Target: GNAT family N-acetyltransferase
Amino acid sequence: MAQQPARKGKPRRKADEKLGQKRLEIRNARPKDVRGIAELVRRVYDDMPAYTHGEIRGQINNFPEGCFVAMLDDQVVGYCATMQLPEPVALGEHDWDEVTGNGYGSRHDPTGDWLYGYEMCVDPKVRGVRIGRRLYEERRAIAEEKDLTGIVFAGRMPGFARARRRKTNRVETPQEYLDLVLAGKLHDPVLRFQLANGFEPKGIIENYLPEDKASLANAVMMVWRNPYVERDQPEKKRLPRGVEAVRIATCQLQARAVADYDEFLRAIDYFVDVAADYESDFIVFPELFTLMLLSFEPKELSPVEAIERLSDYTPRLKSDISEMAMRYNINIIAGSHPTRMDDGDIHNIAYICLRDGSVHEQEKIHPTPNERYWWNIKGGDEIDVIQTDCGPIGVLICYDSEFPELARRLADEGARIIFVPFCTDSRQGYLRVRYCGQARAIENQCFVVLSGNVGNLPNVANMDIQYAQSCILTPCDFPFARDGIAAEASENVETLTISDVNLADLAWARAEGTVRNLADRRFDLYRIEWDVDGKHPGKPRPRREPLGSSSPGGG
Model:
């Protein structure tokens, strides 16, 4: 056996290096860095649309160990993203869209034997201080720590288009261009940098990134082999069956007449208190659970009057539920609450109050025909995961659960639990939500939690009867309950249903399950394209390395 080189003894992190009076830190990227990373990418690639925030969020959530930022004076000046892939995918024929799961890094496979780099950028204003080299060192370090075979990425060749346009010494093919660079007869700063960092070219990838005009869509497969690993065949890695327990409570709430706002809040407080006593991490309430606030009005209000009255409670509701989440140390998905917005539109909004005091909003994207008719409710235009102390989660309000592309976006961004507050009047309406919730759990290999109303509100329009059987649903595979139901309530009774789920089982199922819905998608055939990134309207970023019944919900 050939003698292996000695491992470097210096620490992996270089957190306290100084550049004059400035402080430089290389560390793992965090969700709070998303905005800074997006701004960096815009500065670096001014000729191509930037990442959406959702794509960056997905990259970090799908493999937090493999995404790094360089921080200079608390500003993001460098970013690189990687994922683990099996050798047939990493070294096989592919393009950027296909290999990265449309930019989300969602094809990360913790059993993969290669580290695949698909983004590397450094702020032009701070080049020359070896930030790129430091980020490459982080990639090497993680490959060594995980005993991976090596690192592979598709490197740009930005001088190729210019070389093909020359009148003399014209370069015809990308392979000819690469050969001339290797021979030192042409200078390409990107390829030279990668070669200087120990990467070897293993051939041309054609049509890798159509948006890369300077490279004419071509890229060079660059490979670095881990010197501490000697194997002729890729090793089959196994993912340990770990434990990452989360306790979830779903409240099947009785719609009842209340004397005032305080009585309504006491009813909510009761269930939050009980869930907290059982040390739950989350509690979810039903869609439109605040319609009880209309029960003490002196007369039945018209839909327009009802919305205006409910909107009056919005600031107080958000404040009280947020205070409750902190007081009981529990994350509260506060059903949904119809609210008139500043622009005059009415939206159906879930307020997610976390135990750290933060309040997030998720609007219903698809109002039902009944909601549009009775309440004139408009659909929202953005959906993203919400970062919690138990990892990223998503919320789909009732009818939204019946649109698979919404749950898929949340899964791509890293959601492992999707909460579905719903409001249905009939068993048929309920079963639409239930069956779709189960389908979302299977196809996205995640947990889906349903919470619905029961009872009636005689003085409130369109709340005559309600039907629900709230539940906590799982994928259908060996680590989970045989029928894909972790827990469910009895039909049409007010109750709290609590269950523990193991998020680590999801990681195992996605990597080694009987079926692997997320990994087995045909990225070469189809993808979901979002027209806007809610907070930053504009076309999605092209890919590269370097949205009946008599019940307002209706289901």
Q: What stands out?
A: The radius of gyration is 26 Å. The domain at 245-512 is CATH 3.60.110.10 (Nitrilase/N-carbamoyl-D-aminoacid amidohydrolase). The CA atoms of residues 133 and 193 lie 9 Å apart. The chain has two domains: 24-225, 245-512.
